[in-house]
Design brief:
about 190 residues, globular, alpha/beta, seven-stranded mixed β-sheet
């Protein structure tokens, strides 16, 4: 299965013509603890670039749940990573996905979602779901392509993240990614939804 073909089939849910590169993957998954048994949720894993990095960081500990809306990606990911709980679902249903597994929250949520392609309502719905799924010490990471960072939808997302978390750190540009990207690291979710 070609990542590019999936982009052509549905550019609004795939959002990129190629998977994230190794440099971006390292930065985006750095919040996954290297100790303990955390619950880590991955939103929009696509072809699995972040999935592999999360699995390496967990090294058999904790629980890794990957929520993917694209059925073809979900099937392939489940076959490649039998230790990952791959769920074919919408990221906006994150709270329900966790509840179905007897979980209330996840310590870390790593997103590969194409936020800039989402309309305002969907951005708000998914971000609210992320905030609801994190404990007070929870961490949320996502990324944006540098060239799209100034679009209205990308600026709206950053404003929403800043109103939803006490701390939003905008990382340095990862020039080694194609296209160059930056990672947002969000900590201490607010008690109110966006």
């Amino acid at each position: 299965m070609s990542f590019f073909l999936e982009f052509v089939r549905d550019p609004m849910t795939v959002g990129a013509i190629a998977p994230s590169g190794a440099a971006l993957t390292r930065v985006a998954t750095a919040a996954v603890p290297s100790t303990g048994a955390p619950v880590v949720v991955e939103l929009g894993p696509g072809a699995g670039a972040f999935t592999e990095a999360i699995q390496r960081r967990l090294a058999g500990r904790g629980r890794h749940i990957a929520v993917e809306v694209n059925a073809r990606f979900a099937r392939k990911l489940a076959a490649l990573h039998p230790g990952v709980d791959v769920v074919h679902a919408d990221a906006a249903d994150l709270v329900e996905v966790l509840a179905a597994r007897g979980l209330r929250q996840a310590e870390v949520v790593v997103s590969g979602l194409p936020w800039a392609a989402f309309p305002e309502g969907l951005q708000r719905e998914v971000l609210s779901s992320v905030v609801a799924a994190l404990p007070p010490e929870g961490v949320f990471t996502t990324f944006a392509y540098v060239h799209a960072r100034w679009t209205p939808s990308a600026r709206r997302l950053l404003r929403s993240m800043r109103s939803s978390f006490d701390e939003v750190v905008v990382g340095r540009t990862v020039w080694a990614n194609l296209p160059p990207a930056l990672v947002y690291s969000c900590r201490r979710p607010a008690a109110v939804t966006v």
